């Protein structure tokens, strides 16, 4: 499937509601499944959240398809490991099954779980026999995905001895802060430090409604579009300051790229502002890797020399996101320097080479949404545009308001 995006020739002026935070919603869904007293202020329509909700509510015997979401598989694995008497197999898309799951499985088994691989070692499908986990103390070493720690933190209150986690390092620490905040909102005490977390056993909680915020990571794509446009203003209802989402830093990252922001009774208002052309920009996105695609595409299209570090998790996402950025840069005639955790660019061609062939989204929602603003420079064609449904089902409907 292809989608042709015409060149946008007028200033951007629009108002629309962004989706609820998939990250917060998925954490809330897991907590609500563990404690029926917990309800949520809203349910995310992102495909990952739809699959997670169905997986958590599945019949406790047989096989369940979890879709393509890493969060869905990881959170569902932790949940079903705690469900005494269940015997369930979790299976995802071929691409998801190849993504790392072994560190979480090893941790759950060490805490009293019974999880086995049904086909390939260290990969889904997983067969899970639910048990009452004993918990206790666990050292995780160097953790390559904060979702492994989050999954353990969310189920920790159900463990007989609670849970004391230690680690040497973990990427995306702000997501652990978000997890701890939601647990505390539910009345569950958490001690979180740079290198560990302690959560006691909690038999029940008081009735509570958890507030699910709008998704700050989705704001980044509209910052990108506005930064590349001739001018305009976007109003995004429902956003508040401060936020429990680390990705709320996006407005500060885009400030030197010409984006001003303010909060009103209506929500978040983004507008263009005059800035001096930066000579060289340096970013470290270790805590906010989901902002990498729109931020780096903006830097490239504005021809700003840059270094972006802290990208350790990008090669293991829905696709190799570093390679996806390099592919688009090459199509535009830009040469990048890339590594396992960084991207650098020091020079640009006098004129970009307009892409004539369809641009591959690599079945990755963040790649697809970060490519859309190229249409502010020239018309483009995208492959697999529907992949945005994974996190932002209304993205293309909102985009068409700019045309």
Structure described in brief:
This protein is 30% helix and 22% strand. The protein is of the alpha/beta class and 403 residues long.
Question: What topology does this entry show?
Answer:
Blueprint lengths: L1 E4 L6 E4 L6 H13 L3 E3 L6 H10 L4 E5 L4 H12 L5 E5 L2 H4 L4 H9 L3 E4 L8 E4 L6 E4 L2 E2 L2 H10 L7 E4 L2 E2 L2 H13 L5 E3 L2 E4 L8 E3 L5 H13 L3 E6 L12 H4 L5 E6 L2 E6 L8 E4 L7 H10 L4 E4 L11 H12 L4 E2 L3 E4 L13 E2 L4 H7 L8 E4 L11 H5 L4
Parallel strand pairs: 2-15, 3-14, 4-5, 8-10, 9-11, 18-19, 22-23
Antiparallel strand pairs: 1-23, 5-7, 6-7, 10-13, 12-13, 15-17, 16-17, 19-21, 20-21
Helix pairs in contact: 1-2, 1-3, 1-6, 1-7, 2-3, 3-6, 5-6, 6-7, 8-10, 10-12
Describe the overall structure.
This protein is an alpha/beta fold and about 400 residues long. The chain folds into two domains: about 200 residues, UDP-n-acetylglucosamine1-carboxyvinyl-transferase, Chain (Alpha-beta prism), CATH 3.65.10.10; about 190 residues, UDP-n-acetylglucosamine1-carboxyvinyl-transferase, Chain, CATH 3.65.10. Helices cover about 30% and strands about 20% of the residues. The protein contains 13 helices and 23 strands. Strands 2-15-17-16 form a four-stranded mixed beta sheet. A four-stranded mixed beta sheet has the order 4-5-7-6, with helices on one face. Helix 1 runs parallel beside helix 6 and helix 1 packs across helix 7. The longest helix is centred in the N-terminal third of the chain and has 13 residues. It is globular, with a radius of gyration of 21 Å.
């Amino acid at each position: 499937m292809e989608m042709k995006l015409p060149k946008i020739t007028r200033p951007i002026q629009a108002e629309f509601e962004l989706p609820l935070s998939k990250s917060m919603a998925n954490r809330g869904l897991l907590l609500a499944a563990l404690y029926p007293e917990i309800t949520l202020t809203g349910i995310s329509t992102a495909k990952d959240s739809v699959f997670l909700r169905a997986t958590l509510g599945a019949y406790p015997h047989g096989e369940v398809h979890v879709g393509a979401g890493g969060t869905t598989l990881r959170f569902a694995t932790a949940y079903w490991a705690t469900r005494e008497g269940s015997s369930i197999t979790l299976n995802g898309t071929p691409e998801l099954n190849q993504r790392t799951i072994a560190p979480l499985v090893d941790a759950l088994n060490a805490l009293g779980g019974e999880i086995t691989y049904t086909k390939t070692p260290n990969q889904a499908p997983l067969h899970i026999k639910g048990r009452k986990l004993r918990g206790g103390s666990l050292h995780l070493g160097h953790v390559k995905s904060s979702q492994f720690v989050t999954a353990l933190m969310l189920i920790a209150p159900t463990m007989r001895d609670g849970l004391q986690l230690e680690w040497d390092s973990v990427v995306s620490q702000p997501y652990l802060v978000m997890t701890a905040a939601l647990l505390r909102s539910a009345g569950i005490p958490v001690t979180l430090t740079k290198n560990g977390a302690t959560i006691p056993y909690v038999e029940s909680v008081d009735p509570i409604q958890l507030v699910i915020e709008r998704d700050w990571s989705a704001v980044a794509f509209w910052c990108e579009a506005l930064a590349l446009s001739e001018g305009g203003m976007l109003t995004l209802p429902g956003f508040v300051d401060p936020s429990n989402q680390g990705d709320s830093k996006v407005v500060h990252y885009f400030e030197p790229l010409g984006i001003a922001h303010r909060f009103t009774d209506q929500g978040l208002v983004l507008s263009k502002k005059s800035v001096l052309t930066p000579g060289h920009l340096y970013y470290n996105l270790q805590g906010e890797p989901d902002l990498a695609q729109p931020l780096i595409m903006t830097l490239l299209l504005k021809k700003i020399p840059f270094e972006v570090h802290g990208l350790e998790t990008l090669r293991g996402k829905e696709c190799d996101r570093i390679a996806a950025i390099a592919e688009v840069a090459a199509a535009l005639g830009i040469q990048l320097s890339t590594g396992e955790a960084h991207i650098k660019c020091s020079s640009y061609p006098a004129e970009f080479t307009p892409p004539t062939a369809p641009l591959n989204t690599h079945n990755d929602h963040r790649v697809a949404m970060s490519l859309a603003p190229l249409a502010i420079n020239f018309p483009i064609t995208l492959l697999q545009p529907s992949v945005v449904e994974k996190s932002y089902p209304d993205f293309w409907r909102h985009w068409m308001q700019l045309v």
